[in-house]
């Protein structure tokens, strides 16, 4: 029987790399993440390696802004707008999927529907939307508010926004446009559908002014892992990006989310779970360990503390001794799931504040794995066969060397084990991920 295949995403938002000290690496790319040539080269490298998708995270505010001195030591604090960037990358790639985060908290659903439908047309069926609920609390200040929207309200808004967006994507039947010169008809009127959505938060008449897209609908990704995050993911997502650290915890999350699908009339193969991994690969274990140590040693203590504060929901840790225990941490209105993960980790392993930031700050909350190609492949294969993951979102610790190392050393090892493709299966992102093209809700099959 053919082995289950890993799905792989390539995260390219942080142009110098995922590790918080990556920009200090001697070979790190510069230019504050705005050089399209750097992105184009990375996208083409990832496509040649047959990654399923490129992923761009996003925020609508500058990150790590609570302290200017600390902020000035972290890269990147500036980002290109991801849909614009992915549209440019669509023109220099042909097969790799193009996924971006866009928040439902500070965007209107009509805008979101338009952005991603456009990208799906521009890329001939390679678009995916990571539906996020704004982890950066400062976004509120850029959108007429003096406080961030509460966690549960953000999820309610996400649910209704998604319903509107997906409804708008079905505005036109696949075969609505006929351009029939004989009958003088551009489209068949009965193949156009007004949404007429009137909900608690949104009132949207429609239709969307974009035809149904090559994939029918762009792929839906979800990234929250708290209770409402899992529920939204089980109901709507086709991929969940998550940040799991231990395999047991990954298996629990996987089983929990997949077990919720049935109540929404869905089957486990309709949702792929892809945790993040920050792989540090060397030709030998020692080489990898040296790379890891060098990166870790470059973390400025203020930066480590700030990154830890951020993943814990913005708590100020500056008045506590670095070599003392983590104090009581209140509820977070940002990442509930990651706050819980790290507080539990510190308590269980008796970690000091410094040890905790060294563990989690470098990779901004994701799991770092260092070793030779066999070690990294072992880790990925183990999660795959034990049903803790369907694939991984690869966050290279520093660019471009670490991504090149992953491509040159780990991908051939995954292929040797028969768990990663040698060629794309299809042309659209859905085809490559093994996800069906959704019929329109108005079609007989729908
Ligand atoms: C892997 C991953 C990627 C995320 N990417 C973004 C992002 O690009 N922009 C954003 O505002 N939030 C992002 N988030 C945050 C989520 O949308 C969500 O707000 C956060 O995880 C809090 O929800 P939770 O408590 O359910 O986890 C991401 C979360 C995860 C786990």
Describe the structure.
The protein is an alpha/beta fold and 446 residues long. The chain folds into two domains: 315 residues, TIM Barrel, CATH 3.20.20.30; 62 residues, no CATH class. 36% of the residues lie in helices and 13% in strands. It has 14 helices and 13 strands. The strands form three sheets. It has an eight-stranded parallel barrel with strand order 1-2-3-4-9-10-11-13, surrounded by seven helices. A two-stranded antiparallel ribbon has the order 5-6. Strands 7-8 form a two-stranded antiparallel sheet. It binds flavin mononucleotide. The site of flavin mononucleotide (FMN) has 22 residues, from strand 3, strand 10 and helix 10.
SSE arrangement:
Blueprint: E1 7-11, H1 36-48, E2 53-56, H2 68-71, H3 82-90, E3 97-103, H4 109-122, E4 127-132, H5 151-169, E5 177-180, E6 185-187, E7 197-198, E8 203-204, E9 219-222, H6 227-236, E10 239-242, H7 247-259, E11 272-281, H8 285-297, H9 301-311, H10 336-349, H11 353-360, E12 367-371, H12 373-385, E13 391-394, H13 401-416, H14 429-433
Parallel strand pairs: 1-2, 1-13, 2-3, 3-4, 4-9, 9-10, 10-11, 11-12, 11-13
Antiparallel strand pairs: 5-6, 7-8
Bound molecules: flavin mononucleotide.
């Amino acid at each position: 029987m053919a082995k289950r295949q890993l799905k792989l995403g390539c995260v390219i938002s942080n142009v110098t790399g995922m590790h918080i000290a990556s920009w200090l690496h001697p070979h790190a790319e510069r230019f504050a993440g705005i050089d399209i040539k750097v992105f184009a080269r990375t996208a083409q490298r990832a496509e040649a390696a047959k990654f399923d998708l490129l992923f761009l995270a996003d925020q609508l505010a500058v990150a790590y802004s609570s302290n200017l001195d600390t902020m000035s030591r972290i890269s990147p604090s500036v980002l290109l707008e991801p849909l614009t960037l992915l549209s440019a990358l669509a023109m220099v790639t042909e097969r790799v999927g193009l996924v971006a985060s866009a928040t439902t908290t500070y965007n209107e659903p009509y805008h979101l529907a338009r952005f991603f439908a456009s990208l799906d047309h521009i890329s001939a069926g390679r678009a995916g939307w990571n539906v996020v609920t704004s982890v950066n609390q400062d976004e509120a200040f850029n959108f007429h508010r003096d406080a961030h929207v509460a966690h549960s309200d953000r999820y309610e808004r996400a649910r209704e926004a998604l319903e509107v967006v997906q409804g708008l994507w079905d505005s036109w039947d696949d075969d609505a446009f006929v351009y029939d010169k004989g009958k003088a008809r551009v489209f068949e009127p009965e193949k156009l559908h007004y949404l007429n959505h009137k909900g608690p938060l949104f009132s949207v008449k429609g239709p969307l002014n974009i035809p149904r897209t090559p994939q029918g609908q762009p792929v839906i990704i979800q990234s929250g892992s708290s209770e409402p995050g899992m529920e939204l993911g089980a109901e709507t997502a086709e991929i969940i990006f998550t940040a799991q650290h231990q395999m047991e915890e990954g298996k629990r999350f996987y089983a929990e989310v997949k077990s919720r699908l049935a109540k929404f009339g869905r089957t486990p193969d309709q949702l792929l779970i892809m945790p993040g991994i920050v792989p540090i690969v060397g030709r030998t274990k020692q080489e990898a360990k040296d790379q890891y140590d060098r990166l870790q040693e470059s973390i400025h203590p203020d930066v480590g503390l700030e990154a830890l504060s951020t993943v814990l929901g913005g708590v100020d840790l500056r008045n506590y001794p670095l070599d003392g225990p983590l104090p009581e941490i209140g509820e977070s209105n940002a990442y509930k799931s990651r706050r819980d993960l790290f507080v539990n980790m510190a308590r269980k392993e008796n970690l000091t504040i410094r040890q905790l930031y060294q563990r989690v700050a470098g990779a901004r909350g994701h799991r770092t794995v260092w070793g030779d190609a066999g070690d990294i492949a072992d880790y990925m294969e183990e999660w795959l066969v034990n049903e803790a993951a369907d694939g991984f979102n690869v966050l290279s610790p520093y660019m471009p060397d670490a991504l090149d190392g992953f491509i040159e050393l780990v991908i051939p090892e995954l292929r040797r084990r028969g768990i990663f493709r040698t060629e794309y299966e299809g042309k659209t992102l859905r085809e490559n991920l093994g996800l069906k093209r959704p019929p329109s809700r108005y079609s007989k099959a729908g």
